[in-house]
Amino acid sequence: MSRSRREQASSTPSQPLCRSTGGIKFDPTEPSRQQKQRSLDHCTKYWQNSCCNATHTIPLKRRVMEPIVALFNSKCQALHDEMTCSACHPFVGTGRLERICPDLCDDWFDACKDEYYTPDGSQALSPCYGNALICSPLHSIVPSGREFCKAMGYTPGKSTDTEGVTCFDGSVPDELGVAEPEEHMADALFRIFAEQSEEPTEFMLVVVLVAIVGLFVSVKFFRRWSDEHNALKMEETRRRQQEAYRQAYHLGKSPDDATSDADSSDDDDDDLDFAPAGEEAAAASTTTGRPSTPPSNSS
């Protein structure tokens, strides 16, 4: 370390210096400071105060991409991302927070317990992918979240720790970072659906079953109501038709029917007027019931 840097570090005792943590190496002579917002491709929520800078883009990206390349489930990937970015936290990167909250360790283990890991060169665990020779599911390597955090190179916290104050829980300090944006309802529902579709919980299975049963009952009720409604309409139609028939029987034919009969008889008379003699005689015989005698020819 140069003399000027030593003097600078000793002259600013109120600013804690960075220290390597979580597999990310920092310059021990530099304090945690505000970074350029666009200098961090990953862990951007810590840009206002962090030991991470543009020089850490590659190691951060490599660690973030490992569970993605290993095809881990989305929740496990997100928690790997969170733990990788813990090194960029202004308190973790400077040693003010040395422990990971127990609940976060447990959540991480629960999300990744069925994924495959392998020991790396430092005997810590890393996601199994590529040319790894020995791969085992996490639950067969470590039994709990506490042991998982240890195996990944982190110090698990105590049950008496206060989240975000004496142990790292993934949150951003209000005075040293950017508040995490509120998740929209649509995004939250999509995230929950994606997580549950990969690894459904018992509660979600019960919810889906109740929804299916409710839909089935609703369809049955609607069909029954529709059938009853249609039956009532048919009965009402038949009742009205029968009422109309009874009225027609008691009152006789309607005026329209009488007019139709009169027009028909007039047409018959007109046909008789213009019919030939033979046809008139046939018509007359039909009327009187006696055969007509054809006229004799006088010689």
TrEMBL record:
<feature type="domain" description="Folate receptor-like">
    <location>
        <begin position="29"/>
        <end position="154"/>
    </location>
</feature>
<feature type="region of interest" description="Disordered">
    <location>
        <begin position="249"/>
        <end position="299"/>
    </location>
</feature>
<keyword id="KW-0472">Membrane</keyword>
<feature type="compositionally biased region" description="Low complexity">
    <location>
        <begin position="274"/>
        <end position="299"/>
    </location>
</feature>
<dbReference type="InterPro" id="IPR018143">
    <property type="entry name" value="Folate_rcpt-like"/>
</dbReference>
<keyword id="KW-1015">Disulfide bond</keyword>
<keyword id="KW-0812">Transmembrane</keyword>
<keyword id="KW-0732">Signal</keyword>
<feature type="region of interest" description="Disordered">
    <location>
        <begin position="1"/>
        <end position="34"/>
    </location>
</feature>
<feature type="transmembrane region" description="Helical">
    <location>
        <begin position="203"/>
        <end position="222"/>
    </location>
</feature>
<feature type="compositionally biased region" description="Acidic residues">
    <location>
        <begin position="258"/>
        <end position="273"/>
    </location>
</feature>
<dbReference type="InterPro" id="IPR053305">
    <property type="entry name" value="Folate-binding_rcpt-like"/>
</dbReference>
<keyword id="KW-1133">Transmembrane helix</keyword>
<feature type="compositionally biased region" description="Polar residues">
    <location>
        <begin position="9"/>
        <end position="18"/>
    </location>
</feature>
<dbReference type="Pfam" id="PF03024">
    <property type="entry name" value="Folate_rec"/>
</dbReference>
<protein>
    <recommendedName>
        <fullName>Folate receptor-like domain-containing protein</fullName>
    </recommendedName>
</protein>
